Amino acid sequence: MEFNQVLTAMVTPFNDQDEINYDETKRLIDYLIDNGTEGIVAVGTTGESPTLSHDEKLSFLRFVVNYVNKRVPVIAGTGSNNTKQSIALSKEAEEIGVDGIMLVTPYYNKPSQEGMYQHFKTIAEAITLPVMLYNIPGRTVVRLELETVLRLAEVKNIVAIKEATGDLDLISQIIKETPDDFIVYSGDDNLLLPILSLGGSGIVSVASHIVGNEMSAMVKAYTAGDVVTATKIQQEIAPVIKALFSAPNPSAVKYALNKKGLNVGHVRLPLIALNEAEKADVDDVVGHLY
């Protein structure tokens, strides 16, 4: 399965009643596809998955798959720290018709490397969909080490990893030692170009909500051998990326999308909206893109 190069970890729009806003989801999907997004990750962390009920996840995935209608791949965030629940949600996502699933490293219960290997392998073998691993120790405490990633890459339908460790040595070794068809994505917007230079395939991005065309142009330029242009784009969007992560994600990107006229609404507790000073800081950097 080829997931493409610029994937957006899509926010989940909410209305004033704290319910999923499906009308605005249509607008958001069309906007993303028209502005550089080549694949959508739904109900991931940026989609506020910890605050979505099981039924909300299924309803939202069903809606997204139907509305996207194969224009781009749809990957469902079905990972958790409960293997049985992850299997159940992954199977339901497969029945809905998603194109792949993304599994985050199990948080809070701090499994060993062998525990994580068994966790991911068990989920992958319960479905036929392609699987993307998600390595983000900053949120989960645990991280997949090289040897575990290499073992998991041998599982038939584990085909990719979203790497958000920030460890370029680890990422370089993963790219070098996994099969040529194993896909490595940057999970950090500010590391897209360095990871491309190491042989990575693209990115699962948050900032692409706002600078998707620029990210797409950067990847195309680098792939075409125009490193100068790719570097210039990375330098130009770096302040935007920093501003969009100035508060717990996705508070800032939702604020920026609302300012652009995409009414994605608030974030759910325990996340909170930006305060006035934080809004001003984002406006100073991102305002020209509204």
Automatic annotation (TrEMBL):
Q: Which Pfam families match?
A: DHDPS
Q: Which reaction does it catalyse?
A: L-aspartate 4-semialdehyde + pyruvate = (2S,4S)-4-hydroxy-2,3,4,5-tetrahydrodipicolinate + H2O + H(+)
Which pathway does UniProt place it in? Amino-acid biosynthesis; L-lysine biosynthesis via DAP pathway; (S)-tetrahydrodipicolinate from L-aspartate: step 3/4
The protein's location, in the record's own words, is:
Cytoplasm
Give the record's GO CC terms. cytosol
Q: Please state the protein's primary subcellular location.
A: cytoplasm
What are the binding positions for pyruvate in this chain? T46, V204
| Subunit annotation | Homotetramer; dimer of dimers.
Protein name as catalogued: 4-hydroxy-tetrahydrodipicolinate synthase
Taxonomic source organism: Halolactibacillus alkaliphilus
